[in-house]
Amino acid sequence: MSRITTVLNALKEQNRQALIPYITAGDPNKEATVPMMHALVEAGCDIIELGVPFSDPMADGPTIQLACERALEHGTSLTDVLAMVAEFREKDADTAVVLMGYLNPVEAMGYETFVDRAVKAGVDGVLLVDLPPEEATEVEGIFKAKDLDMVYLIAPTTTDARIEKIGQSGSGYVYYVSLKGVTGSKALDVDDVARNLERIRKHVSVPVGVGFGITNGETAAQVAKVADGVIVGSAIVNRIAANADNPQQAQAEVTELMREMRSAMDQ
């Protein structure tokens, strides 16, 4: 059983939902990433989505695009990201880590090489935005042979037939994009999310995490009532960006936000 499944099953038994933060590896610098990961866990987070910086993102809004630019200015590579996970694992053997990014860096490293190095480092799952399940058959086999979960995106516009395919191909959890558009969007209609999750669960057996538009404890608690996991990205990255010259302050502000969300979700 994967670390992701273990975490989500334990939370389900407790009638709690996963808090899943996203940070971009190497933002604002390489040295800040692992301490931030540990701080997220201490604040009550269950699974960490660690962004692999990429120069040409397609699903990310300005906030995360700029985070990638800051990370790339420091030369953060996929090799660096795997090293960060390995360092994190020296002190944390339980928190699940999902690498989130785009196909090009993985393809450049080579699928089998990447999988071997990712598993050795302690990565539990991968979400590649531009690798849809229809094109991932060969890659999926390589990943799953080493028990590396393949996490896929589902959008409000995804058809039932495609959700069925994702349900068959994905593992760990699926990431429901609650809004049409890119990351960092503001409006969130929780009733609409609930209706779509009801439709998704007819075709998907793994837990469903919801992201995009979750900015504070109130929205996190609302989403937690209908989802298995609450995914938070831009609200965290904005705080890191505002304190790019002071990683300790960034960590303090992100920790405060995560504790607020965890408390609101648990009430």
Descriptive tags:
single chain; 267 residues; 12 helices; 14% strand
Question: What report would you give on this structure?
Answer:
- The structure is a single chain.
- The chain is α/β, with parallel strands linked by helices and 267 residues long.
- Helix content is 50%, strand content 14%.
- It has twelve helices and nine strands.
- The protein has helices spanning 3-13, 30-42, 62-73, 78-89, 103-109, 111-121, 137-145, 160-169, 190-200, 217-224, 234-242, 247-266, and strands spanning 18-24, 47-51, 96-101, 125-128, 149-150, 153-154, 174-177, 208-211, 229-232.
- It has a nine-stranded parallel beta sheet, with helices on both faces.
- β7, α9 (190-200) and β8 form a beta-alpha-beta unit.
- α2 (30-42) crosses α4, α2 (30-42) packs parallel to α12 (247-266) and α4 (78-89) runs parallel beside α6 (111-121).
- The model has no long low-confidence stretch (mean pLDDT 93).
Task: Please write out the topology.
Blueprint: H1 3-13, E1 18-24, H2 30-42, E2 47-51, H3 62-73, H4 78-89, E3 96-101, H5 103-109, H6 111-121, E4 125-128, H7 137-145, E5 149-150, E6 153-154, H8 160-169, E7 174-177, H9 190-200, E8 208-211, H10 217-224, E9 229-232, H11 234-242, H12 247-266
Parallel strand pairs: 1-2, 1-9, 2-3, 3-4, 4-5, 6-7, 7-8, 8-9
Helix pairs in contact: 2-4, 2-12, 3-11, 4-6, 10-12, 11-12
